[in-house]
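Bumping with the actual sequence this time:
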Amino acid sequence: MDSFKVSWDFGSLRLRRFRGALAIFLLLILAGTASAESCLAPPRPFVPSDSQAVLEYADIIRRDFELYIRDIQSYFRCLEEERARAFEEAREVSEEYGRFLGLAER
């Protein structure tokens, strides 16, 4: 009888672990769809301290700066869009909370 109980406990433990893993997996999927775009700042361009290297790689360094300027503008747009999205979400949540409080007081 004890061996049956021990094996049942292991099965229960496995089932709980499976459910926990499934819940985490679903949360990760849902979180990924909720935040589809992440605003990532571009890396700063590197400028060598050696003046000879600057002269040798001037075209590459110039291109890095141009890419940085383009990408930082995209980054600023992304931040603005995320700010607007978060502000709208906060407004909606505030309204939902007000409805909840109205229902909870009944």
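The tokens above came from a reply further down the thread. Helices lie at 2-34, 51-56, 58-104.
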